């Protein structure tokens, strides 16, 4: 053992000495104590003694074989790559680094070499495929592991289907197909090929075109005034379908029916000039229009004259069951526009009129013939028969053959009418009215029941309203209304 005394240095008033000792490998190997070979530095002076910490001396080494070599792997795109590496035993402990394709791999991005010296790539890319080597080294030696190959593969994916191809036959039953390719993406680095069929086939049925063909000719027509006859045929045997060709030739045939011996003197229609045909058709059109206009005008005039002749002094007596609600009475409607009033009611009918008259309304009593002639009155109403629907009683109103002297008004007293009304009966009376024949006579009469109604004198605007319920249910009244137009009542 040799001791080298270092050069004394002053530092903050203290003297510092450095000493060094060399220990050989043989000395360490020959030491067989309970502990490792160690060294200790001791310093002393007149002030005392001081000892340093123990310095253990061991023989450095690095074994040749790795405890775990990395293994090759295959991962899909964006998968995780994990390569395990356990370096060989050594003193001091070996440091580990990774090589990719014989180049040092930097621990950056998705690569992690911390922990147990494993190589971890969290999201593998295609560029991460390669040969990886684990390297362990210390002060003694540098060791390399077996090379591990990492493969990042891509499984194939189908592209979209192409359009169906045309049917392989022009008509009839055939086949059409469509295809796809395993290029979305294409398989790489041993990736799996696409599963399924790359071609699909389907049956197709194209309708065949049918060319048209003529049917049989029809019989010849009768000989015309132009000494011609015609016949026709149709393109229906068969009809052209699905783009087939139409029939060739004409559908109409014309033939001379006299063997060329036609003796007609007038010009044939097909020989006439187009201007003559057009002018003759125009004349016929205008003549027809003129005749139609004249006919319509004459018809309007005739209807107007007829209505005027029928409406003079006339009234229409109609069944008012659709207009009245409480009884079956007459609805008097004058034809003159100056009298819009009608006898109507909103009640349901309870009497039925068995006859309808279109003569002017007048009393049942006969008026003097001279008075009737002077006032232009028509004949009185004929016998009127009224049936009560509810009570089935019949009422007979008879016209009286009684006449009065000229200028005298008849005195209408109560005239009883025989009735049978179920629980009770009531006589019908006619009001006493003075009639002066010097002015036109305006009068009206009707039978009313429980439902009521309205009695209207034509051409006067005067009416009498019988309210609903104003007459007992089992009773009917025949009412008269006459207008006296004398200067003093």
TrEMBL record:
Belongs to the unc-5 family. InterPro entries: Compl_asym_regulator, Ig-like_dom, Ig-like_dom_sf, Ig-like_fold, Ig_sub, Ig_sub2, TSP1_rpt, TSP1_rpt_sf. It comes from the Eukaryota. Its main location: membrane. The chain crosses the membrane at residues 283-306. Residues 442-489 form the ZU5 domain. Signal peptide: none annotated. This is Netrin receptor UNC5. It comes from Champsocephalus gunnari (Mackerel icefish). SUPFAM superfamilies: Immunoglobulin, TSP-1 type 1 repeat.
């Amino acid at each position: 053992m040799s001791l080298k005394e270092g050069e004394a240095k002053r530092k903050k008033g203290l003297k510092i000495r450095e000493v060094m000792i060399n220990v050989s490998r043989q000395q360490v190997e020959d030491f067989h104590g309970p502990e490792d070979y160690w060294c200790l530095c001791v310093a002393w002076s007149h002030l005392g003694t001081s000892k340093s910490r123990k310095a253990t001396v061991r023989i450095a080494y690095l074994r040749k074989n790795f405890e775990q070599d990395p293994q090759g792997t295959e991962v899909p795109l964006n998968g995780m790559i994990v390569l395990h590496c356990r370096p060989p035993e050594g003193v001091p402990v070996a440091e580990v680094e990774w090589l990719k394709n014989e180049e040092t791999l930097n621990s950056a991005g998705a690569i992690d070499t911390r922990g147990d010296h494993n190589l971890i790539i969290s999201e593998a890319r295609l560029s991460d495929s390669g040969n990886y080597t684990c390297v362990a080294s210390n002060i003694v030696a540098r060791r390399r592991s077996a090379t591990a190959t990492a493969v990042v593969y891509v499984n194939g994916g189908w592209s979209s289907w192409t359009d169906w191809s045309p049917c392989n036959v022009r008509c009839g039953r055939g086949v059409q197909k469509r295809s796809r390719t395993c290029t979305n993406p294409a398989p790489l680095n041993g990736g799996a090929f696409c599963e399924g069929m790359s071609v699909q086939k389907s049956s197709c049925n194209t309708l065949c075109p049918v060319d048209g063909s003529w049917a049989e000719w029809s019989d010849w027509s009768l000989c015309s005034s132009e000494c011609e006859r015609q016949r026709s045929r149709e393109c229906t045997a068969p009809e052209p379908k699905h783009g087939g060709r139409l029939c060739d030739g004409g559908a109409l045939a014309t033939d001379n029916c006299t063997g060329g011996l036609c003796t007609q003197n007038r010009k044939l229609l097909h020989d006439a000039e187009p201007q003559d045909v057009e002018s003759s058709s125009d004349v016929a059109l205008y003549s027809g229009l003129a005749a139609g206009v004249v006919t319509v005008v004459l018809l309007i005039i005739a209807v107007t004259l007829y209505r005027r002749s029928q409406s003079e002094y006339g009234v229409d007596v109609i069944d008012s069951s659709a207009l009245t609600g409480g009884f079956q009475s007459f609805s008097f409607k004058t034809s003159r526009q100056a009298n819009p009033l009608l006898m109507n009611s909103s009640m349901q009918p309870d009497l039925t009129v068995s006859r309808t008259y279109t003569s002017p309304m007048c009393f049942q009593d006969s008026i003097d013939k001279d008075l009737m002639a002077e006032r232009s009155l028509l004949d009185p109403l004929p016998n009127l028969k009224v049936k009560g629907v509810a009570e089935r009683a019949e009422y007979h109103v008879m016209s009286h053959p009684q006449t009065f002297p000229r200028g005298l008004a008849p005195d209408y007293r109560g005239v009883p009418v025989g009735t049978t009304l179920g629980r009770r009966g009531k006589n019908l009376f006619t009001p006493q009215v003075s009639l002066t024949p010097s002015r036109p006579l305006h009068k009206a009469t009707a039978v009313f029941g429980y439902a009521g109604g309205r009695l209207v004198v034509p051409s006067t605007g005067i009416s009498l309203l019988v309210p609903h319920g104003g007459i007992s249910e089992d009773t009917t009244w025949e009412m008269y209304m006459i207008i006296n137009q004398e200067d003093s009542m």
